[in-house]
Structures are given as structure tokens and as C-alpha cells.
Amino acid sequence: MKISSFVVLCILILLFNCSKSPSIETETEEEIEEPTTPTKPNILFVIADDVSKDAIPNYAEGNSKANMPILQGLMNTGITFDNVWAYSVCSPTRASIITGKYGIKSGVIEVGDQINTSETSLQKYISDNTNNAYSTAIIGKWHLSDDSNDALTMGVDYFAGILSGGVKDYYNWDLIENGTSSKNTEYATTKLTDLAINWTQNQTKPWFLWMSYNAPHTPFHLAPTNLHSQGNLPTDTASIDANPLPYYVSALEAMDAEMGRFINSLSNAEKANTIIIFIGDNGTPAKVAQSPYNRRTVKGSLYQGGINVPMVVSGKGVSRMSVREDALITSTDLYTTIGNIAGVSTTEIYNSISFSKLFMDENTTQRNFAYSEKEDAYTVRNATYKYIKFTNGTEELYKLSTDAYEGTNLIGTTLSIEATEAKNALIAEGNIIRN
């Protein structure tokens, strides 16, 4: 009986241990397999071609607004910036972002200027300062040189898109992918989004995607009807020329829809770990510009309609939600700002001053001056005044705080003490930048 009791006791102990161990092992396995949040956020940078404030929601300029629920959602969960200056045409804006330098320093001031591949690109800057922590891609419009391999030469891991300023037909265009060209007949915005989805799904590291949509740049072709709300418009040239605005808007709405498709291709964990920056590259083309802008003050000009572009930031690391920000920012500032997002500590380099602290703190002071330029003129502004100087000697001065769209040139009038001091300060700042 004693032996039997001992055997029974041993069996009970064995059964008890066996019944408990699977639960412990399962919990251990779950802890090991549970995904951890990456320490570095993914970065989606969307640059829209020929897009100013007048057709974009949440800005006062313009009357015919594109229906852009994805962008509106980013505005609702992030920051809408009011005083961002870019360049008046696309190439120098893109160069200013990828180099952190004004055109006078990088050599890219107008369309057709070639970027020097010895410049330290934003992508290489991030790689060099984060131990190659990010996968990088530029998908879409390049328009910084005539060589399709230059993006790769400058440290971008993957390039797919359009080499020049635009295409003749958004349904029949040349796609360049890592130096290889092929004919594509899919609507460009959709194809570029497909490429972006495929690329991000194959990444094993945090990624920085420069998404450079070409539409709504000319030609004003009607986007696929399932991607916009402008209706089944005629597609003949005469109809488009008679009223190009709805065609332009259809491309904007299609871009928004495809942005949404890209974002929704991400897992919930990826979405939560992604910061999104949306910006226009220059003013609206004259044919589709809306009031208060006019043909003289839009794309190609240094007036507000030419260089004051929309920008929205939302997502990982942005705690200020559904707010407007009036800090002075230039397109060069994206260099250090995106660098900070990626983990680079430097907040000021070249002509770039980071505004990343604004993502959490509205009281952070950034710039006292903003600057932009063309081949024949430059402009500088502070919080109140804006000065323009042309190479022929012509000067213009506007008090933007009361004359937001530059209706009254103060040069030639009797300047107040305040205006005189502002003019002198703006000229001095311009001289510092340009010398």
C-alpha cells in the first residue's frame, strides 16, 4: 500500500506539471513572436506637381476646390502650414529639398538647370548619419538632370518614374525604373502608386519614400472616372482648352485617391509608425489659377501665388492635430526636418533649418526670414513685409500682414518708419544669402 501510494503521488505530480507546462510555453512563444514597434518611423514625402493653395481644401484661396478626403484627413489629424515658400517652378524646389540649399548655392535656379551629383542628397545624408538605417526611393518625377541614373548615383536606393518635367499623355508614357525605360499605358498616377506599394512591401528596414506625382501638371487630361468627382467630361482638346479647371481638379482628386490606396496598403502597425508630409512644388499654372491669384502672380512668378505652397504634416510624432501653423518655412528646411525624423540630430545645415519641433510645440520659433529666387529676381520676407528685387533694379515692397496678395507696391510711396526699417532688414538679409 505504501508503494502504491507513492506511485499515485508521482503520477499526480507528473500530470500536474504536464498540464501547466503548455500554458507557460505558449505565453513564452507569444512574447517572443509579438511584433515590436520599430524605433524609427517610416517617412512618406508626397510632392504634388504645379499645386498651390487655390484648389486645395482647407485653404482660403480659390473657389473650386478638389474633393480630397485623404488630404483632408491628414489635415484633421495633423498640421496645415500657411507660410511655406518654395520656388516658382518645379526643378529648383526639388533641388532645394534634396540638397538643403538655395538655388544660388546649388546651381539649380530654373527649369533645365542640372543638379551636381556631388551634392550630398537628403537620402545619402540620412544614410551616412544613421548607419544606413533607411531604405530610400524616389518614385515619380525627377526633373533634376538628363541622366536617369543620377538619383542612384546620389545615394537613392531605387528610382522609378519620369525623367523630364512632364509627359505628353498620362495614358501613354515612358517609365524609367533604375535606368531602364519601358512604355507604360496605365494612368500615370495609378502606376506610380502601384510601384510605391510594391516597393514598400518588399522593405525590411524603415523606409523613406519620396513620392513625386506628376499630375496635375499639364497636359490637363481627364483622370479615370473612378478616381474623381468631376463627371464624365469630354476629352477632346477643344473642350479641355475651353475650361481646363475641372480636368486639373480631376487629376488632383485622382492623386488623393491613390494616396489613400497607398496608405491603406500599409498594415495598421506600419500606418501607426509612418509620418506623412504633403507639399506642392510651386504655384498653379495660369490657365487654371483661381482668385485671388491672376496670370501675373502664379507659377513662374515670385508673388504669393507662385511660391506660397500648401504643406500638411501628419502621423507618427505629430501631436498637434487639426491646427494651422503660420511659421515661416522654406522648402530647403525639409532637408534637416526629414533628417531629424530619421534620427539625425543636426537641426541646421546649409540653408536648411529644421521645423520638426513644431510637430509637438506651437511656440517654437523657427525662421525670421524666408527666401526664394528666380534667375532675374529674388525675394525675402519676414512676418510682416515682403521685398522683391529684380536684376534690372526694380524693387517692390508689400505689407503682407494687411495686403496678403500684393495689391499695393509700397516702393514709390512715402514709407513709414516701420516699412523703411523692414525694407532695410530684408535687403540686408538678401545680401547675406546671396553673397
Automatic annotation (TrEMBL):
The protein's name: Sulfatase-like hydrolase/transferase
A Pfam entry, by short name: Sulfatase
GO terms, molecular function: arylsulfatase activity; metal ion binding; transferase activity
This protein's UniProt keywords: Calcium, Hydrolase, Metal-binding, Signal, Transferase
Native organism taxonomy: Bacteria, Pseudomonadati, Bacteroidota, Flavobacteriia, Flavobacteriales
Family named by the database record: Belongs to the sulfatase family.
Organism domain of life: Bacteria
Leader sequence segment: 1-19
Domain Sulfatase N-terminal: 41-344
Organism this protein belongs to: Polaribacter haliotis
